[in-house]
Every structure is written in structure tokens, then in C-alpha cells.
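Collaborator request, handled under Task 6.
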Amino acid sequence: MGQYYYLDGAAPVGPFSLQDVYTLVDRGVIGPATLVCKEGGAEWQTLQSIPELNGKFNATAPAEANAPESGRKRRRSRINVTAIIIACLFALVAIYITYTISHAFQVSAQSTGEMDPLLGR
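C-alpha cells returned to the collaborator:
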């Protein structure tokens, strides 16, 4: 069998034997959409489109192949939920502060007999 290179960004990494490529797939370093070139080859192709390498993906369950991506989606979802909770807490604190200041101003105005310039009372 030949040796293989894969693209990490714009830089080729390798060479790797077929078994090494399978190990990289198992560890989640590369996936079916990773661009790979066989040593001496002229074109970069997706890993899943190379016949001697795509058998690894046919044997792997789709859920396993997409695990890193689904993990990112879960993290993104948690971040969104956290942001919403923080925004709601901030809004509640702002409402509480506004109410407290307004109430304190009304009590002060009633005790001194002054009129509220905003309410006209």
C-alpha cells in the first residue's frame, strides 16, 4: 500500500500508512471530508472518495463519524441557553433597580410634599 498525506488548513501533513490513516480517523483527527492525497498523486480528494480509505467510513456508524460536529452543536446550544439566562437575569435586575428608585422617589416626594416632575403629582 501507499503512503498518504492530508491537508491541515493549507499545509500537507504526512506521510502516513493506511493503518496510520485509520488511527487518525479513529481519534477524530481527520474525517470523511478531509482532503487526502496518495504519495505521488496529483489531486487532493476527500478521504471518503478514495476507494482504499472509504471502507473505514462504511464500517463506522454515521453517528460516530459525526460525533465531533454534534459535540460542537451541543456546546453552541449550551452557550445560547446560557446567554439567554444571563440576559433574562440582567433584565430582572434592571427592572428591580428601576422600581426601587421610582418607589424611593415617590416616598421621598410624599414625605416632603414635592411634586414628581415626571408624573405631575
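The cover message to the collaborator said: "The CA atoms of residues 17 and 82 lie 44 Å apart. The chain has four helices and four strands. Please let us know whether this matches your experimental observations."
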